[in-house]
Amino acid sequence: MTIDEIKKKTQQIVANKKSLPGALLPILHDIQHEFGHIPEQALSIIGQSLNQTEAEIFGVISFYAHFRMQQTGRHVIEICRGEACQSMGSKSLEQAAQSQLDIKYNQISKDNNFTLEPVYCLGNCACAPSVKVAETVYGRMDSEKFARLTDKLSTYKINVGEIV
Amino acid sequence: MTTTVFIPRDTTALSMGADDVVQALKFQSKAITDDITIVRNGSRGLFYLEPLVEVMTPKGRVAYGPVQVEDVESLLAQGLLDGNSDHPLYLGFTEEIPFLAKQQRLTFIRAGIIDPTNIDEYIDHSGFSGLTNAFAMLDQDNDNGRQAIVDEIKTSGLRGRGGAAFPAGIKWQTVLDAKAKAPEQQKYIVCNADEGDSGTFSDRLLMEADPFCLIEGMIIAGLAVGASQGYIYLRSEYPQAKNILEQAITIAYQQHYLGKDIQQSGQTFDLEVRIGAGAYICGEETSLLESLEGKRGLVRAKPPLPAIEGLFGQPTIVNNVISLASVPIIMEKGAQYYQDFGVGRSRGTLPFQLAGNIKQGGLVELAFGTSLADLVNDFGAGSYSGKPIKAIQVGGPLGAYLPEHQWPTELDYEAFAKMEAVLGHGGIVVFDDSVDMTAQARFAMEFCVAESCGKCTPCRIGSVRGVEVIDKMTKTHQERSEKSTEQLAELNTLLVDLCDTMTDGSLCAMGGMTPIPVRSILNHFSDDFVATTDKFNVKETN
Ligand SMILES: Cc1cc2nc3c(=O)[nH]c(=O)nc-3n(C[C@H](O)[C@H](O)[C@H](O)COP(=O)(O)O)c2cc1C
Ligand code: SF4
Ligand code: FES
């Protein structure tokens, strides 16, 4: 996408949402949904239209774990680090996932397929440990299931909710 | 005749493969009949049995579970569609499964029974009866009617289910009495659906299994205090709840339960879902309001209370999902009915959530007063791993780790407070004896480092120091020099002091409660704390 296209799209999103009370988070969500991250060029556009400085907008983005300004791999895999998942072995799952993909949290795998991110509870604590990819949560995850999941994700686009 | 089959679409059922079971069943049942209807209900909360497949029979719903794709063929062959009984996954009538039969469901009365986005089914299962009663109170005259609704909530004894257990009726009264300020002249109902605690999922399940119940509760709250705008602040980690809530809200608008002139009552209530962005602190009510206003979620000092100066400076009710979803049944059956459940000052029911290393995890709604031991043993059937249970953390990451001798304590806000523990959101996380208690104490501090809003020093800096001290203790212990015992004792004192500072000096309960899990480990698992089995026992200093 060219910079002009990014700007144009951002302007559209901002125009759609700016009249909402407390519009900033909805705007940031829409932008991240569109581009996978919040491009630097968006800051001044949002700032101007909400009458805030770029620093203020950046301050909000950096406060929230969900928002990011860097690109990700094709799939973002979130691994739950909450206590319920810990009690079911999420720590060894984290290690297995990191060594399997050869990345640490918030990094992109060499094949550009994956980004790993930590998350604190997906509300799936009765079937822990849990991971989430896009909108799908997977329960009772272990290193073997994880390997099968990433295998599927990297070979073809799987249907949401498909069992691994 | 059509056979109706129920397969849930809540996050947990989906996480265990419910969609694939649906596909397999659709495909494979064709050989037997063309005439099956698959209803995607919400889950009953028997998560250890998900995906739970139910079949409607003339005598009632029969359950099978947990069903995987590879079970579908044999299930069909052995008479699944007739509710037959010779399959190993056969569970009998759903309502008779002990895990469910022994519950006292008030708030979750419809969960898993209906299709969450079918408003007719909601109404058939006494949905909107509470709202109808509320309208009847307003019919006489608005002001007395509003007061009557607030009085009903007060009498019910309902206390906030989000953690602080503040009486809902008193909060509502404050908002009712508050004057909305010009130019907006607006009061707000804000639903706290941030549910950040590990081990908790009752808000999620309610929103995914019975969203109209929350919507109805919020409309009633709006009528009670004269607020015409509501927001549900939902965490971004719950995309399925978002989908289902948004569908339900759209339908509620179409059917004139939301918007202008609701059911020709002359009353207006608008409702919108707003998505958080992965900050635990945004579950704290003032931080949540900042976030809703489009800012960083920095905690506001109180007073002013949100009830007086809340969202955009206007009087605002901030209530948890379960608090608001308990309102319809109170308004339907009366305050006395609700108040008859519970013990002491903890009235009504609480949806307890069994999670972690537990064999039968899921949601158990019961009146206050049961013991943790009963929940974990009777309902939970012990640990998942089969190993002995060592510790149970109740109330999320800021809750205490309880040792075995505390498990018989009644689940009641005051009884828990007495032992320096909290019930919080009702989340119960079980750990077997492989748990490393030092690591859990460290994690409590680490979580606070990650999630502190940063506004005050005891929490922002204290938590960082907390991690450091615990690391130093571990290292000292490992080195085992001559002086280790002495040094460990000193570090232990330092950690206890630090906990006191955080408790006393923090602006909100994030920093104020982080010491709770740490202290509980120091007090009850001191043999484990750093020194596992040997002479480096740090007990005497706490
Ligand atoms: C750090 C922190 C996190 C909180 N997280 C939540 C939460 O996730 N959900 C919730 O309902 N209340 C949470 N609370 C409690 C809220 O501040 C507030 O008491 C509650 O929303 C009021 O609603 P209630 O009276 O219906 O419980 C949290 C409080 C603190 C201090
Ligand atoms: S205690 Fe922590 S989270 Fe609460 S206001 Fe202070 S810094 Fe923020
Ligand atoms: S702690 Fe991992 S899903 Fe809740």
Provide keyphrases for this structure:
heterodimer, A: 164 residues, alpha+beta, Glutaredoxin, 2 domains, four-stranded mixed sheet, 47% helix, 11% strand, elongated, B: 542 residues, alpha/beta, Rossmann fold, Ubiquitin-like (UB roll), 4 domains, five-stranded mixed sheet, 41% helix, globular, disordered C terminus, binds flavin mononucleotide, binds iron/sulfur cluster, binds FE2/S2 (inorganic) cluster, 2Fe-2S (chain A), Thioredoxin-like_sf (chain A), iron (chain A), NADH-quinone oxidoreductase subunit E (chain A), NuoE_N (chain A)
Explain briefly what this protein structure is.
With 164 residues, chain A is an alpha+beta fold.
CATH top level of the largest domain in chain B is: Alpha Beta
The computed structural class of chain A is alpha+beta
Rounded to the nearest angstrom, the distance between the terminal CA atoms of chain B is 70 Å
The CATH topology name of the largest domain in chain A reads Glutaredoxin
Query: What value does the average pLDDT of chain A take?
Result: 94
Report the uncertain regions of chain A: none
In CATH terms, the superfamily of the largest domain in chain B is: NADH-ubiquinone oxidoreductase 51kDa subunit
Cofactor (chain A): [2Fe-2S] cluster
Protein name (chain A): NADH-quinone oxidoreductase subunit E
Family (chain A): Belongs to the complex I 24 kDa subunit family.
InterPro entries (chain A): NADP_DH_HndA-like (IPR028431), NuoE-like (IPR002023), NuoE_N (IPR041921), Thioredoxin-like_sf (IPR036249)
